[in-house]
From TrEMBL:
Domain of life per record: Bacteria
The keyword Acyltransferase belongs to this UniProt entry's keyword annotation: no
Active site: 55 (proton donor)
Name recorded for this polypeptide: Aldo/keto reductase
Keyword NADP included in the entry's annotation: yes
Alphabetized GO MF terms: oxidoreductase activity, acting on the CH-OH group of donors, NAD or NADP as acceptor
Coiled-coil region(s): none
Amino acids binding substrate: 113
Limits of the NADP-dependent oxidoreductase domain: 29-263
Site note Lowers pKa of active site Tyr, residues: 80
Organism encoding this protein: Chitinophaga terrae
UniProt family annotation: Belongs to the aldo/keto reductase family.
Pfam family, one: Aldo_ket_red
């Protein structure tokens, strides 16, 4: 990944350019809160917005994009099919619902939100159809571990272009990252800031002081230097602007490795190998 500025991109396996930095809106409330946060992000130069059906804020995201001066074609917009909607026909219907709420005629990326056993292969076939029909520019998965990916690849006509996973200094999953890289599946981080727990880690405080940056800036830059697309969530304008201040410093390889060595396999969210929703 060549890191340049807030408008920098990675090229997915199918040639689509995906901004490597964006805004996530998990737990951002529908209405004014999500409209404001997306507006703050777009006005600060963000061009990648990540939502999902289960977040129940697609309408606000769509409204913010519609009202902003930024052209829709310049925004990389992601949504995800929820578990209850998985299956072939129900996924196609869920996609239509998301488009309607987001006030758009296409998505840049559509993901299977979780690997629901017995359903995700049919769901993937639906995503392949949406992709073949030109209704989405790229398709991928979220929360898929290596066994899920290996199983999916046995029957898939299209290899997922993205895998969005929990990723932060306490959960690196380097073998999974390596597997995705080998198969040209772009790794993407959710919960990169560990819902604030990064502030409790002494090494991160020490390195942030060394590079004269905030702890979130340090961690988000580490994501990018690991080749991982990152979408930090915030509803505060000052933090949305601050989180994007990643372009005037570079972490040494030695310090990248130090941060990676914090890995303890510790999750903030559910375990994709054992979930029941």
């Amino acid at each position: 990944m060549q890191i340049t500025d807030i408008n920098g991109t990675v090229t997915l396996a199918n040639g689509v350019k995906m901004p490597y930095f964006g805004l996530g809106v998990f737990k951002t409330k529908e209405g004014k809160e999500v409209i404001d946060s997306v507006t703050y992000a777009l006005d600060a130069g963000y061009r990648h917005i990540d939502t999902a059906a289960i977040y129940q804020n697609e309408e606000g995201v769509g409204l913010a994009i519609e009202q902003n001066k930024t052209n829709r074609k310049d925004i990389f917009l992601t949504s995800k099919v929820w578990n209850a909607d998985q299956g072939y026909d129900s996924t196609l219907k869920a996609f239509d619902t998301s488009l309607q709420k987001l006030k758009t005629t296409y998505l840049d990326l559509y993901l299977i939100h979780w690997p629901v056993k017995g359903k995700y292969k049919d769901t993937w076939k639906a995503l392949e159809k949406l992709y073949a029909d030109g209704r989405v520019k790229a398709i991928g998965v979220s929360n898929f571990l290596q066994p899920h990916l290996e199983d999916l690849l046995q029957s898939a006509d299209v290899v997922p272009m993205v895998n969005q996973l929990e990723f932060h200094p306490y959960l690196v999953q380097q073998p999974l990252l390596d597997f995705c890289n080998q198969h040209k599946i772009q790794y993407e981080a959710w919960s990169p800031l560990m819902q604030g727990k990064i502030f409790e880690i002494p090494l991160l405080k020490e390195l942030a002081e060394k590079y004269k940056v905030t702890i979130p800036q340090l961690v988000l830059r580490w994501d990018l230097q690991k080749g991982v697309v990152t979408i930090p969530k915030s509803i505060r304008q000052d933090r949305i602007i601050s989180n994007a201040g990643l372009w005037n410093f570079e972490i040494s390889e030695e310090d990248v490795d130090k941060i990676s060595s914090l890995d303890r396999g510790e999750r903030i969210g559910p375990d994709p190998a054992n979930f029941n929703f």
